[in-house]
Specification:
It contains 19 helices and no strands. With about 475 residues, it is mainly alpha-helical.
Length: about 475
């Protein structure tokens, strides 16, 4: 009789747990569709740059501002997401952001000059910057504590697939249609995201007593945008460039002033006090290292496949399909293991997979076979799936529940900066490698890519060392 009661009790809990996930699944899909829209648009531009240079008859340096301006706008607006969400309601801000993003996408298709396209991309960044932090914070609030790993894993799928599918979609549209379609595609996706968010996103009561931290609202965008700009400028012109050094100095000085201001505020724009917790700080450092290693590597894949292997943008996109598959597998398995065993074993396994793949890629050359590349990319995807959302979930678990909306902009802002930093250091090092190759070595330019992967492998190795000392989740 006791065994029967125990069995029924376990079964009831299982049914209850399953029902909880089903109940919030429409909300998850609504948030995921909005995040997919924004992240996808961040990645399709990389493949489109050469086409845009030819279309507008301008220089590569000018068109690169189409990407840089978008990133700067994201970095500037993300810190404001927490206050806007609390003051006006997360649902209203989420819907407004999608509308602004879609309208600016339509404007991008109408651009007649590079300058117009850059301006419209800035508007896109302002619209898209708040989608991810609000979506992650909302998901974390509605997720049952014992299922947060699995549920955040579902939300992480667009974060993993969009950067991988972006080059495939962009390459096919550019090759078989025209560049306008990389923005037109945002219209149906955006309408779907708006409809789902309008119907399924839970309404929250805005807090009229929430006062805006004016000094923080001024300092944060200046600090984050200056840092992102200096990273891009330093990577393109070199760190002896006066503008890169000036904006770096402005960014660092403004960031330090911002930290001092925020720690003295009763209602700060970003809740920086969470960094007083050693476990939270440790988790943040791990997340930053993982971002540098991962995103610094992802940009090298299409460059190597197109410049060294001679593949078209569409063909290069097909090469990362195994990465997408393994990312999806990794994030689903990783979420379940996270709920059962915590972050440490899952993250160690994921970073080990990433490190092993990056070490393998240090050996590539122009003659490297397709199977070797596909397997390496697949293990990068597995590491990506096991670590990205699990580290974010670990960090959010360490924050008080009422401060989640203020913590997610911190992690999202840092993600933009660290991703930019990873991309910049790898592309800058690769450029120097290619310049110093002699004419006799020009037949094997792939070696330069192999040498560049040592940078990201080294960062991944440091991340693995940090992950060995990862703390168990414990409320502050």
């Amino acid at each position: 009789m006791e065994r029967r009661v125990t069995f029924l009790s376990d079964h009831a809990r299982a049914v209850s747990s399953e029902f909880s996930i089903r109940q919030i699944l429409p909300t998850l899909l609504a948030i995921a569709s909005g995040m997919f829209l924004v992240i996808l648009d961040s990645t399709v531009m990389n493949v489109a740059i050469p086409k845009l240079v030819d279309h507008f008859g301008t220089t590569l340096g000018t068109i690169q501002w189409v990407i840089t301006a978008y990133t700067l706008a994201l970095a500037a607006v993300i810190p404001l997401a927490g206050w806007f969400s609390d003051r006006f309601g997360a649902k209203k801000v989420f819907l407004s952001s999608i509308v602004l993003f879609v309208i600016s996408s339509v404007l991008c298709t109408l651009a007649q000059t590079p300058e117009q396209l850059i301006v419209y991309r800035i508007i896109q960044g302002l619209g898209g910057g708040m989608v991810a932090p609000i979506g992650i914070a909302t998901t974390f609030r509605i997720a049952p504590p014992e299922k947060r790993g699995s549920i955040m894993g579902i939300l992480g799928i667009p974060m993993l697939l969009a950067p991988i599918l972006g080059p495939i979609l962009s390459g096919s549209l550019i090759e078989y249609v025209n560049w306008h379609w990389i923005f037109i595609i945002n219209l149906p996706v955006g309408m779907l995201a708006f409809f789902m968010a309008f119907k399924y996103l839970p309404a929250t009561s805005p807090s009229k007593e929430m006062k805006l931290d004016v000094r923080g609202a001024v300092l944060a965008p200046v600090a984050f945008a200056s840092l992102v700009f200096s990273i891009h400028q330093g990577g393109e012109k070199g760190w002896s460039d006066g503008l890169a050094l000036a904006t770096l100095a402005i960014g660092v000085a403004t960031l330090l002033l911002f930290i001092v201001v925020e720690l003295r505020q009763k209602q700060p724009l970003l809740e920086l006090r969470v960094f007083r917790s050693l476990p939270f700080f440790h988790g943040a450092i791990l997340a930053w290292l993982n971002q540098i290693a991962l995103f610094g590597s992802l940009l090298l894949f299409p460059l190597y496949l197109q410049q060294i292997k001679g593949l078209s943008p569409f063909e290069a996109g097909l090469y990362v399909i195994p990465q997408a598959i393994m990312s999806t597998i990794g994030i689903n398995i990783g979420g379940k293991l996270f709920d059962k065993y915590g972050a440490r074993p899952v993250v160690i396994a994921g970073i080990s997979s990433l490190l092993g793949a990056l070490l393998a890629l240090t050996q590539i050359s122009a003659q490297t076979g397709s199977i070797y590349l596909l397997i390496s990319f697949a293990f990068v995807g597995l590491g990506q799936g096991l670590t990205l959302m699990q580290i974010n979930s670990h960090i959010l678990k360490l924050a008080p529940r009422e401060l989640v909306s203020r913590v997610t902009p911190i992690t999202t802002s840092a993600q933009q900066i660290m991703s930019s930093f990873g991309i910049t250091i790898t592309t800058a090092y690769l450029s120097r490698q290619l310049k110093h190759l002699s004419s006799d070595a020009s037949a094997d330019l792939g070696i330069a890519f192999g040498h560049t992967f040592w940078i990201t492998a080294g960062v991944a190795g440091l991340a693995l060392l940090v992950s060995l000392f990862l703390h168990k989740e414990k409320k502050l």
